[in-house]
Amino acid sequence: MQQSIAVLGLGIIGSRSADQLKQSGFTVHTWNRTPQHRPDSCAEAQDAVKGSDFVALYLKDGIAVREVFESIRPSLTADQTLLNHSTIDLETTHWLAEQCQTIGCSFLDCPFTGSKMAAAQGALVYYVGGDPDVLENSRQTLEATSKEIKFLGPVGSATVVKIATNLISASTVQALSEALAITNAYGISPDTLTDAVASNACGSVLAAMKLPSMAAGDFAPHFSMENMLKDSKFAIQLAENKGINTPGIKTTSQAMENACKKGNAQLDFSALFKAYPEA
Ligand SMILES: NC(=O)c1ccc[n+]([C@@H]2O[C@H](COP(=O)([O-])OP(=O)(O)OC[C@H]3O[C@@H](n4cnc5c(N)ncnc54)[C@H](OP(=O)(O)O)[C@@H]3O)[C@@H](O)[C@H]2O)c1
Description:
Layout: E1 4-8, H1 12-23, E2 27-31, H2 45-49, E3 54-57, H3 62-72, E4 81-84, H4 90-103, E5 106-109, E6 112-113, H5 116-120, E7 124-130, H6 132-143, E8 146-153, H7 157-185, H8 190-198, H9 205-215, H10 225-241, H11 247-264
Parallel strand pairs: 1-2, 1-3, 3-4, 4-5, 7-8
Antiparallel strand pairs: 5-7, 6-7
Helix pairs in contact: 7-9, 7-10, 7-11, 8-9, 10-11
This protein binds NADP nicotinamide-adenine-dinucleotide phosphate.
Residues 9-14, 32-34, 58-60, 63-64, 67-68, 86-87, 112-113, 115, 222-224, 227 line the site of NADP nicotinamide-adenine-dinucleotide phosphate (NAP).
């Protein structure tokens, strides 16, 4: 039987995942806070949710998730599954799980890695926390938008891992910005640095992707500065809860805060490089 899904949040990722789900044969109903001109759009989130087998959240943060959840609560039923793909704070992940348990609907803590291009190709990688049986029932749905699904453990484990990996990504791009500023200042071309990094143990998919666009001054958003700033704050909070000192991500978080104040919130987080005069 054809399955149906409500996609709530049509930003960089949600809009592309909704397209992928449609192409895979799902009946898709979408909703966005700022109305979007799509044939599958509903005026209210509740309308998208009513009767859908799955509800997928691709929202900005914990505040958005809590607000939207309250608006759809009256429409959620025990035979539905809520998939939260938004990167949110751990407290809100546990809150969502509790609310779903009260209603009787299934829930997966299910953030992802992969950016604009991966979403457009249905090639995200999902990190999953929750009940393995719920994952099996949701697998076909998740496969429509992903190339890999990693089960990590109970609810909360995927949120923590997602935040920890974004700590690495933010810190890496800050380090790439500093390295590029130094090599530029010494007259070494960005191509030379990119090539050297590719052959170095410090090389990564992220470095190969970001160094050329940073050098070219292309900061079109794949993952926005304000969303990475949000995730750095989640990382600092997770660390503080356990008494762990994190000077690196605190410095990078401050750099992102400064970038947002300068009007770069909607640019890609690689616009960290704009802090350097020649960028
Ligand atoms: N882009 C990436 O590469 C990437 C990678 C991994 C994880 N993520 C995470 O995935 C989530 C979505 O990412 P994205 O890049 O698609 O973000 P985005 O482009 O910034 O979109 C955010 C979405 O959240 C909605 N929203 C924000 N505040 C809201 C509120 N209070 N109530 C209702 N809706 C609200 C926005 O609606 P409006 O249009 O009305 O503002 C928009 O639909 C985020 O948690 C992000 O951190 C993103």
